[in-house]
Each structure stands twice: as structure tokens, then as C-alpha cells.
Amino acid sequence: MTLGDGSLNTIIVVEFGLYLLLMVVIGYLVSRSAKNHSEFLLGGKQLPGWALAFSERATGESAWLLLGYTGFVFATGLSAVWVAAGIATGIIFSWLFLAKRFMEEADKYQVITLPGYLAARFGKHAKIILWLSTILIFSFMMFYFGAQLAGAGKTLFAVFNIPPVMGIWLSFLVVVLLAFLGGFIAVVWTDMIQSIMMLITLVVLPIIALVKISAADLSISQALMSSGPTLDSWTGGAIGFSLGLLLFNNFAWVFGFLGGQPQLTSRFMALRSKKEARTGSIVAVSWTVLAYSGAFMIGITALTLYQGQTFADVEMILPIMIMDLFPSWIAGILLAGILAAIISTADSQLLVITSSVSEDIIHNALKLDLTQKQLVAVSRTTIVLAGIVGLVIALTSESLVFLVVSWAWAGVGGTLSPAVILTFFWRKYSGIGVIATIATGFISTVIWISTPLEEIVSSRFTTFFFAMTAGIIFSLLFPDKKVDSNDTHSSGKGTAGDKPDLEGSASANHETLVGNEETVSDPIKL
User: Fold this and answer.
1) Spatial separation of the C-alpha atoms in residues 173 and 145, rounded to whole Å
2) Region labeled Disordered — which residues (predicted)?
3) Which of 42, 86, 92, 219 sits at 20 to 30 Å (Cα–Cα) from 269?
4) pLDDT the model gives residue 397
5) In the 8-state DSSP scheme, what is residue 411?
6) Per-residue pLDDT averaged across 267-296, rounded?
7) For residue 122, which phi and psi values (nearest 5 degrees)?
């Protein structure tokens, strides 16, 4: 049984159509929960930790996990495990060591976006930080969003024989409707359902494949050896310096997970208590271990089941396995999980783009005097306009998906992750240091990916390294002024007990308490 089998198309298309309809209905039902701008963009602390964890995982793993990584394992063999190791390490670190801190900082500074937090934390330079962050996020995320729509069109064509252009339009309409109707709350609840569907696909499929391999008396180790000279090697046959580069570049995905992906950190900021953060950590770590183990085994079992066969596109190996191993009605449900991955990531990216425009620029940087209702209207307008831009990108660009996903992971995650790490864990980090981090990350990504150096060392690491180095150097050269805590209190500036003035998501006073001394940024001037 192969993709495009006409006997299956009707059942699968009907099931997929029902799935899309269900997502839109859920989005409509929960849309009534978002009454103000904060609730529309961050849920208003209404969501349980387990739902936020499922949503964060669905958002973090687009079709790249189900299609890209399974195909990568099929093509490269055992050495593909280091990609999973790097990603899993980053996910586990972020949930165990960053999630609770993000929740606490969001509550302290009354912010609802990652750029808003950095601006509030380093008030003197707030406006520059907001503008630079928005340019960074919009530049990379807009193309990342377009890549998701393009990937959806490719998948719908391969799986359901739906013309790519029609598939892109269909995905665009569903994603924009979900984000437009209920904002963050609708996205999280639909993400939760989609995350479970993805997990079922990744766990059930390799189990069934292993059963078939056992019944057919096939050998996985023999299949790996016969499929290629390096596929049975955990190091891909590399030695010495080449081995180091192989392991390092594959593991380098970890740097994008260290707090710098705003579509993921928004889930941390939406947590409502330490207990919910612990629950979310358990769910997210368990999901990660199960999903990546399953994806890795799908690629390995596919090598065994299809040894000797060639495929025009190895990224279609998972849909092929589903249609080969399951009855059509089950196949339709599992295949919908692939599109669930794309939709869950795309709608979260659209909300990140929206929050950068409506919250960080219009509300905070420009300080326009708008009511909560007007701000929600601005966000919804931004969703539609940004969605149209992404649609145009998806319809007009070629060879978009793989390159843009990797670059966006470097450009956004590799740039903002060092900003987050330094803000959380280094007391000498300064406002000028933040600006240097963002500017250096943006410029170094664009330059690095434009040269052959990208083929040697991934920009997923170099961006992180250059951005962090710049942040450290400029913080040492241009430190925020330090004053004694007693002087601070007597002068009326930066007291620890001050209530943050964050109607526009910007604090009037910020400080990091260090013994008897405080690191104080000047009041925000927006």
C-alpha cells in the first residue's frame, strides 16, 4: 500500500476534514474566555500546567519531527540519535531550570512577552530592546510561518493528493481562524489535542512496526549493515575531527531551547503556580522521551521493513508506514497527527508575530492610548495581515522548509537564548549587553548562513556563541550603574518593593538583589 492509493483517499480526507472542523469548533467555544489583551495573548493565568506542557511540546515540534527527523534517521541510521539527544537535553533543561523562573519573572514585571520582559528588566534601554527584538522575531518568524504553510501544502499533496496550492490555502484558513477566534487560549487547547495525536502516532507506529519485523523474522542489525556502510554506526563512521563536528553540529539544536524561542517561553510565562510548573515539567519531559524515542525507532524500523527499496522523498517514510501498517480509518487518524504538528506550530508562530507588533511595539514602544478592546482588535488585525504575508511567502518561495526552519532556530533561538541565560544567571548583564546580544545574533546569523561556513559548523551554535560573547563584553564595557540599596531607597528609585508600572508591559523600576547591593537600571522611558 502506498501514498496516493485511491481506495484510501475518501476515508482519509473525510477524517481529516472532520479533524479540522473539530479544531475550529473548539477554537470558537473557548474564544469567549479571552476578554482582554493579556488573556488574548497569554491566557490570563487560566490554563493548567499539563495543558501548557502539551501545547509547548506541540509548538516546539512541527512536522520536522514526524517527517523531517524520521526521514533523517532513515537516511543516516544510528548516528541520527545525537540530534534527538541535543534537542531532548534542551527541552529538559528549559522545563527543569527555566520554566518556573519565567513564570516568576512574568509575574514580577507584569509582562506577557519575552521582549517585554527584557525591556522591563533593563528599563533605560527598553525602547531599543523592543524594536530590535521585534525586527528579529518578525524577520525570521515570518518566513518560519510561511515555511509551515509550505510544508502543510507538501504534506497534503503527498498524503491526500490535495494540490499543494489548495493545501496551503486550507492550512492558512485553519491557522488564522484558530488564532483569530480565541488567541492564546484557543491555541493552547487545540495544541493539547494535537500534541496527544502526535504522541499516539510516534508511540504506536514503531510498536506495530516491531511486531511486523518480529513476525517476518527480519533483523534490524542486518538491515542497518546492508543499507549502507555507516548506517549501523553510532558515529556515522566518522573519526577524529570529523567525528567531533558530526556530534557537535547534531547536538547544537540544544542552544535554541535555552529560553530563546518566544513561542515556547510564552507557555512558561503563562504558568500560574509552582505546582503547575512541576506538573508541566513532568508532562513535557515524559512527552519528549516518548516522542523522540518513537521517532528514532520509526526511522530504524523503516530501514528494516523497506531495506533495498528507494524513495523519492525520505521525509514521506512515516506516512508510507502508516498506510502500509494500519487500516484506512486508523491511518486517517494517525495521518491527521502530521498536520496537527504543522498547525500547532504555525498558529503559535502567528501569535508570536502578533504579540511583537501589538504588545511590544504598539502598546509598549509607541505607548498608544488604546483600550483593552482596541488592543485585542489590533491583535486580530495583525493576525490576518501577518497570515496573508506568510501565505504569499508560502505560495511564491521554493526550497523553503528545511533551510528556513534551521535558520530561524538559529536566528531567534540562538540570539534570545543567551539573552535569557545571562539575564537569569549573571548579575552583571546590562541593558547595553542585551542590545549587543540581539544585534550580534541577528547579524551573525545572516552572515554565517550566507557562507560555506554553515556547512562546517552550524549557525545554531555560532549565533549563540557570538551573541553571548557580545553580551558579556558589552556588559563589562558598559555596565548598568550600581548604587547602594540604602541610597536607592532614599532616592526613591528602584526599590525592591515598588509595584512595577507595567500597564504597557514595562516596569518603571528593576533590580537584581545581590547581597547588600542592587544592580539598578534607570526607569523605563518609552
Assistant:
1) 13
2) 485-526
3) 86
4) 67
5) I
6) 94
7) -125, 70
Degrees to nearest 5, angle at CA 209 with 23 and 340: 15
DSSP string for 62-97: -HIIIIIIHHHHHHHGGGGHHHHHHHHHHHHHIIII
Grid cell, residue 373, equals 478592546
Tell me the per-residue pLDDT of 201-211, one tens digit each, with 9 for 90 and over: 899 999 999 99
Secondary structure letter of residue 500 according to DSSP: P
pTM surpassing 0.85? no
Distance (Å, whole) CA 236 – CA 445: 27
Closest CA to 290 of 74, 12, 53: 53
Let me know the angle formed at the C-alpha of 365 by 112 and 445, rounded to the nearest 5 degrees: 80
Q: Tens digit of pLDDT for each residue in 459-476?
A: 888 999 999 999 999 999
Higher pLDDT residue, 167 or 270? 270
HEC string of 106-138 equals HHHHCCCCHHHHHHHHCHHHHHHHHHHHHHHHH
- Residue 521 CA to residue 423 CA, distance in Å, equals 13
Tell me which amino acid residue 141 is: M
- Contact yes or no for 515/468 (Cβ under 8 A): no
All cell numbers assigned to 328: 484506512
> Residue with C-alpha cell 549493515?
225
DSSP label at residue 447: H
| Torsion from C-alpha of 339, 345, 350, 352, nearest 10 degrees | 170
How far apart CA 347 and CA 145 sit, in angstroms, is: 8
Residue identified by cell 547588600 is 516
Kindly indicate the confidence band of residue 187, based on its pLDDT and cuts at 50, 70 and 90: confident
Nearest to 503 by CA among 378, 319, 395, 371: 371
Whole-angstrom distance, CA of residue 296 vs CA of residue 293: 5
Closest CA to 78 of 335, 362, 296: 296
CB atoms within 10 A of CB 503: 10
Give the chain's domains with CATH numbers: 6-401 (1.20.1730.10)
Q: What is the pLDDT of residues 380-426, one digit of tens each?
A: 898 899 889 888 888 876 554 555 666 777 888 889 999 999 999 99
Mean pLDDT of 480-496: 47
Residue showing cell 473548539: 26
At residue 376, does pLDDT exceed 90?
no
Predicted confidence at residue 126, as pLDDT, reads 92
Residue 190 CA from chain centroid, whole number: 16
C-alpha grid cell for residue 518? 542592587
